[in-house]
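Per your request, structure below.
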């Protein structure tokens, strides 16, 4: 498993598993749609593929260090026990990119949102 930032930097490699499409993955998609609206005042209306990965809890410090090395923005907090980091893909509308969600300081998921046409070709 490899998560790649918009600048091509590798965030996590062999640190977790890809999740199958299920209701939790759909929930994360809705969260991203809402956050995109909050960040840009624009709806995420493009067709995109959402690939979700779950990191092993012991890898959280390594992920944070890697994000710092990639000069990713500081995590933004949503409520008390949840934060997210968004690294946009240059040249694409807001919403496309790498989203990293941390729950309770160690339960970490990343969502790579890419245009559907890139995945089909």
């Amino acid at each position: 498993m490899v998560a790649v930032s918009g600048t091509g930097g590798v965030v996590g490699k062999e640190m977790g598993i890809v999740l199958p499409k299920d209701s939790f993955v759909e929930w994360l998609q809705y969260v991203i749609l809402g956050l995109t609206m909050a960040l840009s005042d624009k709806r995420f209306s493009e067709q995109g593929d959402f690939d979700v990965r779950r990191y092993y809890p012991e890898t959280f410090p390594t992920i944070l260090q890697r994000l710092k090395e990639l000069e990713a923005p500081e995590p933004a907090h949503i409520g008390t026990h949840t934060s997210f980091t968004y690294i946009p893909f240059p040249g694409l509308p807001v919403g496309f990119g790498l989203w990293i969600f941390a729950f309770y300081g160690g339960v970490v998921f990343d969502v790579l949102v890419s245009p559907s046409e890139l995945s089909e070709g």
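The CA atoms of residues 82 and 103 lie 5 Å apart.

Regards,
D.
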